[in-house]
Amino acid sequence: MSQYELDARRILCPMPVIRTQDKVATLSPGDELVVTCTDPGALNDIPAWCRINGHTVLNTEQKDDEVIITLKVGEA
């Protein structure tokens, strides 16, 4: 398992989800991805995308104007 980071700051919906999807496509099952966004909609959008696509949200947090979502890549 490896951990990766994705900077999705200063982009608006639906781009944080699309960038997350593109990054996850390059990762292996079990890898973790930490996505940092400034779009508050990502707090709902990325976890919903994870549920639909078989990935697990490990943690969500809000710090100031940032949303930080940690997810675990599921099986392809």
How would you explain this protein's 3D organization?
By secondary structure, the chain is of the alpha+beta class. The protein has a single domain (3-72), classed as TusA-like domain (Translation Initiation Factor IF3), CATH 3.30.110. It is 29% helix and 36% strand. The chain is built from two helices and four strands, in the order βαβαββ. The chain has helices at residues 15-24, 42-53; strands at residues 3-8, 32-37, 56-63, 66-72. The protein has a four-stranded mixed sheet, covered by helices on one side. α1 (15-24) links the parallel β1 (3-8) and β2.
Summarize the structure in short.
This protein has helices at about 15-25, 40-55, and strands spanning about 5-10, 30-35, 55-65, 65-70. The protein is an alpha+beta fold and about 80 residues long.
Number of strands: 4
The backbone outline, from C-alpha atoms, is: globular
Helix/strand structural class = alpha+beta
The CATH topology: Translation Initiation Factor IF3
Please, what is the oligomeric state? single chain
User: In order across it, which strands form the biggest sheet?
Assistant: 1-2-4-3
Radius of gyration using CA atoms only: 11 Å
Which class in CATH terms? Alpha Beta
User: How many H/I helical runs?
Assistant: 2
Percent helix among the residues? 25-40%
> What average pLDDT do the residues reach?
97
Strand content: 35-45%
CATH architecture grouping: 2-Layer Sandwich
* Number of domain units: 1
Enumerate the spans where pLDDT stays under 50 for 5 or more consecutive residues. none
